[in-house]
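Re-run with default settings, no changes from the original entry. Doing this only to confirm the output is reproducible before filing.
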Amino acid sequence: MRHWHPPAPAAATALLTDLVGELGGPAFGPRLLARMRTLLPASTLSVYRTGRRPALLLTGAAGVPDTTRDCWRAYLSGPHRRDRSLLPDDAARDAAPAAPLLGHVTAAEVQPEHRARVYEAHGVAERVSVVQPQADGGVLAVNFYRHAGHRPYGDVQLADFGALAGAVLALTTKHLALSGLLAEAGAPADDGTPQRRRLQALCPALTARELDVCERLLRGWTHEGVAADLGLSVPTVKTYRNRAFQRLGIHFRSELYGLMLPA
């Protein structure tokens, strides 16, 4: 795998013209992927944040089924804990905290578990990324993936991507901010919602994670959705659910809903 710092900003008039009008809107992701496909044989796009609260923020696909969310769930099932392909330790030490970094990796170069669960299981062959280190040790990553059967990324294509990476990262970050996705991903676990306060009042012994899980169950989320949002495995989510239900003296989600009703 290779990592390098982006060069000084190059002329990106076409990129800016195409994307600036889509900032904050639903067409930004598809337009970004379409623009980058003029440079790279990329089939899917993902923008996610790792660190204390991992979150998948933006996805897209062209020419292949969109399995991006399945890949994200597979990534959070274990590989994310050992993944060093986005921001290696030596690069993290050498780079300034705010400096973006470019990355390029093929399926053969990632760790076996990561390769099997994410790349091979979903036909992903190659990834190029621009990442922004975060204060909590994670990154904000904009990723473009080549799928099996498509021609590999070439050196000229990687150089073209590097020349535009700074603009891509800046525009994507602005889009996430305008659409509210970035603030949502960085929100503290305890957001003080009425449901959370009600649960705390009913059972002060509930832990923060148990409250996190119950709060999302009350919103109607599936266990898989809760796991992806909190960066946990599905069995771990169910463990927190069971512990919380035991503390609350209930057995079913319907009873959890019932606890929210006025006495």
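Confidence is low (pLDDT under 50) at residues 91-96, 187-191. The first strand starts at residue 2 and ends at 4.
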